[in-house]
Amino acid sequence: MAQTEVDWDHHIPLPKLAPVKAKITLALVALLCFINSYDGDFVFDDSEAIVNNQDLNPATPLNNIWGNDFWGSNLSSNNSHKSYRPLTVLTFRFNYLMAGGLHPVGFHILNIGLHSLISALMFDMFSILLGGLTYVNRKRLNHVPKASLLAGILFAAHPIHTESVAGIVGRADLLCALFFQLSFLTYCKAFRGGGFCEQLRFCLNVLLLCSAAMLCKEQGITVLVSELVRTGLLTRLALLSLSGASLLYTRWKIMGTGPPAFTEVDNPASFAENVFLRVINYNYYYSLNAWLLLCPWWLCFDWSMGCVPLIKSAFDWRMPWLLLLWSFLIGLINQAICSQDSQRRRTLTLGLVLLVVPFLPACNIFFRVGFVVAERVLYLSSAGYCMLLAYALGCCCCRWSKHKIFTCVMGLLLIDNIQGQKSKFHQWRSEQSLFTSALSVCPLNAKVHYNVGKNLADRGNTSAAIKYYREAVRLHPTYVHAMNNLGNILKERNELVEAEDLLAKAVHIQPDFAAAWMNLGIVQNSLRKFEEAEQSYWNAIRFRKKYPDCYYNLGRLYVDLNRHLDALNAWRNATMLKPDHSLAWNNMVILLDNTGNLAQAEVIGREALKLLPKDHTIMFSLANVLGKLQKYEESEGFFLHALRINPNSASCHGNLAVLYHRWGKLELAKKHYELSLKLDPEALGTRDNYDMLQRKLDQLYRTTAP
C-alpha cells in the first residue's frame, strides 16, 4: 500500500480501535442517538401497514403474506401499491406474536436494534470501500481503521435516518440495508481465494441474500449493481448479471407486469406534459434529497400535495440549485475518472456508486414513484454520503494536520446530529406532534393540514379540525378526502346544506368515492331528500360491493319511508357482510318489536347474541321483547346481564323497573325506577311510571293498614 494512504488515515483525530471494539462503538453511538424513539406510538403509515393490516394477525393464514402487498392488499387489486415486502411483514407478525398484540414498544425496539447492527456492519463495508480489499493468509486487512470508524459514526448518527428508525414502516429500509450489507460482504469474501466450488458457493449465498434484500424492499436488487462495479472472474460476473435479470423479471411478474397507479398529487412532476419541465423538476427533487443529506434540519413526514411547487420556468429562483448539484457531481465524477491518485479514483467511484445506485429505484427514471421526496429511501444512500464526507475530512486532516479546527468540526458535527435527533424523535412520538411539526416545513402541503385536522377530529376537537380541513381544500381544491371528512363534521354539527355541497362536489370529482356517496346519502336523508339519498346509497354500493355500513344506513332510510321489509333486508345484508354489525342486529330486533313481530324479534335477538354474546344493547332489546312475551324470568336475566356490563344505563334500569311492575314485584320496580331517575332525572316516561307505581303502593299500604 502507498505511504500516502497510511498518512491519510493516521491524521484523522480518532483512536485506532480493534474491529470488534469499533463495531461495538458504532452500535452504541446508534443506540445513543435513537434510543429515545422506543416509546413512540404507531404513527402515519404505521396505521395502514401495521394497525389495519390483517396479515399481522396470527389468525390470518401465513400464505396470505406471499400474495399481498406491504399494506395488506392483494397484489392483483387495482388499489395495490405493488410494494412486495413479505419478509418485512413477517417481522411485523413476529412482533405481534411476541407481544400478544399491537404494542408499539416491541416494534420500536427491534427497529433500534436493527439500526445498531447495521451501523456496526458499516465498519466492515467502509473499510473495504475506503481502504481496498486485501487478504493476507485469507484474512482481510483494514488499511483505514480511523476513516472507517469516522464514516460509521457519521452514518450511525445521521438525522436522515429518523423516519426509518422511529417510523415502524421504516423496518423495510432497515432490513433491506442489512441484507444489502451481508450480500456485499459475502461477495467480498470470494476474493480471498479458493477453488471454483467455494467461489460458486459464495456467489449463491450472495444471490440468496440479495433476494432477501429485495423481499424486504425493492431497492435491495441494487446490491448486485454495486457488486458488479468490482472486478472479478468472468463466470462470477456473468452469474450475478443473469441472476439479477431473473430477479427483476420475477419482481415484474409479481407486480402484474405493470407499475402501480399513482395520482398527480403523489408525484406532480411525473404528470407534467412537457418533457423538459419533467426533467427539470426531477432534477430539483434530486437536489432536495442532496440537501437533506447535507443539512437534515427540515425533515417532514410527507412532501407531496404542493409542498414542493413545480418549476414551470427556466427563470425560477430554484434553478441555481440544480446547477450547483450537477456542478458538484460532475466535479466528483471528474476526480473519480481523471485523478492521478489511484486510491482517490477508487474511493470516489465506490462512494458515488453507494450514493447513487440505491437511490435509482426512487429517481423516476425507470418508472413513476408515488412520492416527491421520501427520507426513508435515503437510508442506504446516506452511507455513500458518509463515506465521501469521511474521505473529504480525512484528506483535510492530512493536509492541515497542525490545525485542530477539523477536530472541532467533526466533534460539532457529531454533537449537532445527536442534538438534532432529540427534536426529531419528539416529533415522531405521536401523530399530533408529527403532523403539527410538518406545518412549519411544508405549509403549502394540503396533506399535512388534512392530517392535522384528522388527528384533531379523532381527539374530539372538531372546531379546530374544521379550520385545517378548510385550509387543505383551499390549498388543493380537488382534495376529495378532506371534503369528505369536513362534510362529516358539518353533518354532525347539523350544518347540512354546506355538508351536502361538499360531499356532492367530492363525488363529482371522484365518482367512484364510495364513502363520500354514503355520507352524501346520510345528509340527504337528514334533509328529507329521500329519493336522492336512496340513489346515493346505491351508488356507494355499486362502487364498493361489500359495504355493510352503507346497507345499515340504507335500512334506516327505508324505516323513514315505512318500507319495513326493505329495511330488514338491508340490515340482513349488513350482517351477512359483517356478522358483528351490532347496530344492524339491534335495529332488526327493535323494528320487529315495534311492528308487533315479537316471535321473529326473539329469534333474531338470540341469533345476534350467539355472535355478540357481550353486546348489552342487543341484550336490552331482546329483554324488552321477552318481557312483552311474558317470559319474565328470561327477560330479567338479560336485563341484569346488560346492567352488569353497563351499570349506568338509565334506560336499562327504567325498562327493568317496567318489567318488575308488570310482574308484580313492586319493591324491585321502585328500586330500579329510582336508580333510573338518579341517572337521568329528565326521563319523563320513567317519572310518570314511577308516580303511577308510587300511587299504587300508597293504595296498597292504605288497604292493608289496620
Automatic annotation (TrEMBL):
GO terms for molecular function: dolichyl-phosphate-mannose-protein mannosyltransferase activity. TPR repeats lie at residues 446-479, 480-513, 514-547, 548-581, 616-649, 650-683. Its main location: endoplasmic reticulum. Residues 258-330 form the DUF1736 domain. The chain crosses the membrane at residues 112-136, 282-299, 319-338, 350-371. It is a multi-pass membrane protein. This is dolichyl-phosphate-mannose--protein mannosyltransferase. It comes from Esox lucius (Northern pike). The lineage of its organism: Eukaryota, Metazoa, Chordata, Craniata, Vertebrata. The gene is TMTC4.
